[in-house]
Specification:
About 35% of the residues lie in helices and about 25% in strands. By secondary structure, the chain is an alpha/beta fold. α6 packs across α8. The radius of gyration is 20 Å and the shape is globular.
Length: about 300
């Protein structure tokens, strides 16, 4: 090892857990900026998303994986495959567990999948500010009953409790080596993916029932005018049925206008520029059952 890297550490830590365990919220708290989308809808995360935290003597790459669950369609199978694939490419795994929800068969199943990962593992409880001490104690005991974790960290990302402790715990797990990404990078995701995800998040927060899972977003064009510091973006929102299209467009286009306005605000904050966002809604029947269409949207492997 060169003397240059003797005191520098870098590596990948995957956050793994059931859907809606708070993985994306924790990553945003670590970076102190919004990069990963969040919502109360299970299976919000569809990409194996890498967030990069540059520290004085380390580069920590957090891998946000889709929530692991029993799949009901080809999309669910592909998301599980993506999460399992993450085990092969990381230096450590953080098993992320919602402190407010009872430990169940789904959590046990995720831990059983983790057994195949020959890497260091830590237990991370999320949403602890909303849980009682008894709930926290029960969760730690249930998760640790059959599995050995190097460390246990209690976090509440929205209140930023335990976030620095989590960062330190991850840094301890990293091997020595050079930075894998430029020191000014914050994610490995292209802008097209970030735009599509920000739009999809606003759909998730404004629609209900089965519709969020039937939505895919594809960015068709991004044009940047450097003199004006302005982005013009065109994207299509795909659903599976004509009735779902009406739910997104809304009466006289009111719903799609709100979705576009909210997404544009987040994008302007992210890009530090003005943004024009043009959204169109199209029907692509039963796309979640078609592996080719799933790949086209960039979901999974």
């Amino acid at each position: 090892m060169s003397q240059q890297h003797e005191h520098f550490k870098s590596g990948f830590v995957a956050l793994v857990g059931r859907p809606n365990a708070g993985k994306s919220t924790l990553i945003n708290a670590v970076l102190e900026r919004k990069l990963a989308i969040t919502s109360s809808t299970p299976q919000t995360t569809r990409h194996r998303f890498r967030a990069i935290l540059n520290l004085p003597s380390a580069q920590l790459i957090l891998v946000d994986t889709p929530g692991m669950h029993k799949p009901i369609d080809a999309l669910g199978e592909e998301l599980n495959r993506s999460a399992l694939k993450a085990f092969e490419d990381v230096d450590a795994v953080a098993f992320t567990l919602d402190a407010t929800q009872p430990f169940g068969k789904g959590d046990r199943w995720v831990l059983e999948q983790l057994e195949r990962a020959q890497v260091k593992k830590i237990l991370v409880l999320t949403k602890t500010a909303l849980a009682t001490p008894e709930q926290i104690e029960a969760q730690v005991a249930a998760a640790s009953r059959d599995y050995l974790f190097i460390d246990t960290v209690l976090t509440s990302a929205l209140e930023t409790q335990g976030v620095k402790t989590f960062i330190s715990a991850c840094e301890e797990l990293l091997p020595h080596g050079p930075a894998w990404f430029p020191r000014d990078a914050s994610t490995d995701q292209p802008l097209e993916v970030l735009v599509a995800e920000f739009v999809r998040e606003k759909i998730l927060t404004s629609t209900f029932d089965e519709l969020p899972h039937a939505v895919g977003v594809e960015v068709e064009e991004i044009a940047h005018e450097s003199k004006r510091n302005h982005y013009s973006i065109e994207a299509k929102i795909y659903v599976e049925r004509e009735s779902q299209k009406g739910m997104i467009v809304g009466k006289k286009g009111a719903k799609i206008k709100t979705i576009g306005s909210e997404a544009r605000k987040d994008l302007e904050h992210l890009l530090g520029a003005s943004v024009y966002l043009d959204l169109r809604v199209k029907v692509r029947k039963n796309w979640r059952k078609d592996a080719h269409q799933i790949k086209r949207f960039g979901y999974g492997e």
